[in-house]
Amino acid sequence: MSGIRILVVEDETALRHIIAENLRARGHLVHEAATAQEALDILQHRELDLLLFDINLPDQTGWEILRTITSGALPLPGPVPPVVILSGVRYSPRRLAEFHPLAYLPKPFPLGAVLRLVTEVEQRPAGNAGGPLKVS
């Protein structure tokens, strides 16, 4: 099975690189962003299959980016990709429900959880974002 196109948005350089390199080693095309602006630039120019998103970024929150792309305020080259939230801050189910993420992984999370989520997204039929994923 060929890999999927993933954007990893994480301001912690070491964590971003660990996630990205593990995904690349599994055949995925991975873009990296450390800031909201970098993420928006990539989102505007690249069709993606999955977003791995930290919420606390240095220039904006991940929530602001997600609002921008889900509202249509930023033209995307394809559909809005499914999102996995990565965050060191605990969020209420109500807050998470606003964006319907596939999953929410509170930091610190095992790398295996990210890899399992990506595998589940990769195995879904094309064009089927589906509902929330379960992390086991």
Short descriptors:
single chain, 5-stranded parallel beta sheet, Rossmann fold, 136 residues, alpha/beta
Plain-language structure description:
Helix content is 37%, strand content 18%. Strands 2-1-3-4-5 form a 5-stranded parallel β-sheet, sandwiched between helices. It is an alpha/beta fold and 136 residues long. The protein has 5 helices and 5 strands, in the order E-H-E-H-E-H-E-H-E-H. The longest helix is centred in the first third of the chain and has 13 residues, at 13-25. Mean pLDDT is 89; it is low at 130-136. It has helices at residues 13-25, 36-45, 62-70, 93-97, 111-123; strands spanning 5-9, 29-33, 50-54, 83-87, 103-106.
| Record field, number of beta strands | 5
Tell me the name of the CATH class: Alpha Beta
Unreliably modeled segments: 130-136
Q: Say what the CATH topology is.
A: Rossmann fold
Strand order of the largest sheet: 2-1-3-4-5
Structural class: alpha/beta
